[in-house]
Design a protein that fits this description.
The protein is an alpha/beta fold and 264 residues long. The chain folds into 2 domains: 7-189 and 225-250, 3-Layer(aba) Sandwich (Rossmann fold); 193-223, no CATH class. The chain is built from 8 helices and 7 strands. Strands 3-2-1-4-5-6-7 form a 7-stranded parallel beta sheet, sandwiched between helices. Strand 4 (84-87), helix 4 and strand 5 (139-143) form a beta-alpha-beta unit. Helix 1 packs across helix 8 (226-237) and helix 4 (102-132) packs parallel to helix 5 (156-176). The longest helix is centred in the middle third of the chain and has 31 residues, at 102-132. The radius of gyration is 18 Å and the shape is globular.
């Protein structure tokens, strides 16, 4: 699989899974556009990636159409085309159903679901225009979650937005199939992050004061390494996945992530 000279926009790429994908793609010689609302972290991420390959930071609130327009325009100004879009930007809200405020509910859906739609539509229009000029079709990947199936009572809008990403992926795949543009989704479980790693390391099964009920061994066994998500994204972009579109892949059903163990 080769990503050499692929132009990839990755949203929410300043941190976590988005950065892991951006780093992996950079090591495969792709040219990455780091899109994130966090300017400080985004610029820092781009500088780190520039030591590996071409990387550019673009400040972008994916829920805002003009920001998305600027993101796409910048990518085209620099590289002249867009081969890959990975919709990774997302936020969560942990309020209870009875207490969550309407503005917070709307904010999560605007970023997670509407943001994926806005970015995909803007990029797909450019991909179609390029195809009509003789360029090869591009690929779009939406990052969802197992929350799409297994609801979490304290994450209402996040659960709903993830539930919407799977049918959005199918609709996009059907609409863009005539152009050869493939659209798929990746839906991992809990993803290992610095914050989660620190939390797990602080747990002590022998100390009741340091036991946190949500982090059962079963939960820990289902944690997905961001590097695995990055490898799946690479596969979906590659020619080896040329016949795959409209699918949601579940990393937790694909075997171990790597040699790293998160067992306590």
């Amino acid at each position: 699989m080769s990503l050499e000279n692929k132009i990839a926009i990755i949203t929410g790429a300043a941190h976590g899974t988005g950065y892991a994908i951006a780093e992996h793609f950079s090591r495969q010689h792709a040219k990455v556009i780091v899109a994130d609302i966090d300017t400080v972290a985004g610029k820092k991420a781009a500088r780190k990636l520039q030591k590996i390959s071409s990387a550019t930071f673009v400040q972008c609130d994916v829920s805002q159409r003009l920001d998305v327009h600027n993101l796409v325009a910048t990518a085209l100004d620099i590289h002249g085309r867009i081969d890959v879009l990975i919709n990774n930007a997302a936020i969560v809200n942990s309020d209870d159903f009875l207490s969550i405020k309407e503005k917070d509910f709307n904010h999560v859906l605007n970023v997670n679901l509407k943001g994926s739609f806005l970015c995909a539509q803007a990029v797909a229009k450019q991909m179609v225009a390029a195809i009509k000029k003789g360029e090869k079709p591009g690929t779009i990947i939406n990052l969802s979650s197992v929350n799409a199936i297994f609801a979490i009572a304290s994450q209402i809008p996040d659960t709903i937005s993830n539930g919407g990403l799977s049918p959005l992926t199918k609709v996009m795949a059907l609409s863009l199939a005539q152009y050869g543009i493939r659209v798929n989704a990746i839906a991992p479980g809990a993803t290992m992050s610095k914050l989660l790693r620190a939390t797990l390391q602080d747990l002590d099964p022998k100390d009741e004061k340091k036991q946190t009920p949500p982090f059962s061994q079963e939960y820990i066994d289902q944690i997905t390494d961001p590097k695995k998500i990055a490898r799946i994204a690479e596969y979906l972009v590659s020619d080896e996945a040329a016949n795959i579109t409209g699918k949601t892949l579940w990393p937790n059903d694909m075997g171990p992530t790597n040699d790293t163990s998160y067992n306590l």
